[in-house]
Design brief:
By secondary structure, the chain is an alpha/beta fold. The protein is about 40% helix and about 15% strand. The chain has twelve helices and eleven strands. The strands form three sheets. Strands 1-2-3-9-8 form a five-stranded mixed β-sheet, sandwiched between helices. A three-stranded parallel β-sheet has the order 5-4-6. Strand 2, helix 3 and strand 3 form a beta-alpha-beta unit. Helix 1 packs parallel to helix 2, helix 4 runs parallel beside helix 6 and helix 11 crosses helix 12. The radius of gyration is 20 Å and the shape is globular. It starts with 14 loop residues before the first helix and ends in a 16-residue tail after the last strand.
């Protein structure tokens, strides 16, 4: 029923290959839906080619890198992490845990994306509202000449300096997955600093490598994965300082959008019905609560019916769920840019 393909790791340099891989799925006469997660640059063009050849195929994008209006013009449904709500909630959670400083680590390519630049602006405003210091630092882009190894080495070298400069009650956030593992490793080793959750949260994101946790025997069992990671974090003295989502965001989006497509094709769900989308996501994340809203343009106030923003409750190791899905996000967060 399901065909699985991968696009090139260096998707920015091999964009035409990425487009061809995705668009080529329309050649299969049995194909009914195409899900791309993460929907990297080139996905919009690939979806346009699919629609030209097979307008009947449902095109779904998970975690789109292209501007919302662009990807929404070609995709039938887009699902992104709720960068608006999380811009407020991540800082609010850090404040609740006793943090007085927040360090945001990124680079120009990511900050050129509306989703990340808006979240940065919301984080900065939230820090001002809560009386916290906000620091934005630039780190090497893993897709640049230094590669992943060079980018990770930079984080390893800089983290002790950041802790010394900003203090032990500093929370850190990085927009790139490759930066996460070395950051976590250093924060654990230093016994200082906080990490609320990753850009795309998961107990698999950074923690196993940073902590040396073996998970082969519990592969695919997220409650067991979370428990093993949490036990190790607590054992290493990190209780109350390190968080995640209980179920991998990447996994849940791929599986959830796939399930939603199946439900729609079978006539059991409506494509743009938020409750139906949440039902599909919940199937793969039992016990974890979700929330979210439609994307709204900060300039015009106009929303996109086919662009959904979602987020899962934050789970802090040694403390439990933070119930962030119940926290009211202030109205100003939706207009900050």
């Amino acid at each position: 029923m399901i065909q699985h393909l991968t696009y090139p790791d260096n998707f920015m340099e091999e964009q035409e290959t990425t487009i061809s891989v995705i668009a080529g799925l329309a050649d299969d006469p049995l194909m009914k839906a195409v899900i791309v997660n993460q929907a990297v640059p080139g996905t919009t063009e690939a979806f346009r080619r699919i629609k030209e050849a097979r307008p009947d195929i449902i095109c779904l994008a998970g975690e789109a890198h292209e501007d919302p209006a662009v990807i929404a013009s070609a995709a039938d449904l887009v699902s992104n992490n709720d960068f608006v709500s999380r811009g407020y909630l991540i800082i609010n959670t850090a404040h609740e845990l006793g943090c007085d400083t927040f360090v945001h680590i990124s680079f120009p390519r990511h900050l050129s994306m509306e989703t990340m630049s808006r979240r940065l602006a919301i984080m900065q405003r939230t820090c001002e509202e809560l009386g916290m210091e906000f620091v934005s630092v630039s780190a090497p882009d893993p897709t640049s000449d230094v590669g992943i190894a060079g980018a990770q080495q930079y984080i390893l070298e800089q983290t002790p300096t950041w802790i010394e400069q900003y203090g032990p009650n500093t929370a850190f956030f990085c927009t790139n997955d490759a930066h996460t593992e070395p950051l976590l490793r250093q924060l654990i080793n230093l016994g200082a600093g906080y990490f609320i959750e990753a850009d795309l949260p998961s107990p698999l994101m950074g923690y196993p490598g940073a902590l040396g946790v073996q998970l082969d025997d519990v592969s695919g069992d997220f409650p067991a994965i979370l428990k093993r990671v949490e036990d190790t974090v607590v054992e290493r003295g990190g209780a109350g300082r390190f968080g995640t989502w209980a179920y991998s965001y990447g996994y849940t989006v791929s599986a959830g959008l796939g399930q939603h497509a199946i439900n729609v094709i079978r006539g059991e769900s409506e494509l743009l019905n938020r409750a139906d989308i949440m039902k599909a996501f919940a199937k793969y994340s039992p016990g974890a609560s979700w929330n979210g809203a439609n994307y709204v343009n900060a300039d015009t106030g106009v929303g996109l019916r086919n662009y959904f923003l979602v987020y899962q409750d934050t789970y802090v190791m040694g403390k439990g769920y933070m119930h962030v899905t119940e926290v009211e996000v202030p109205e100003w967060a939706y207009t900050v840019k």
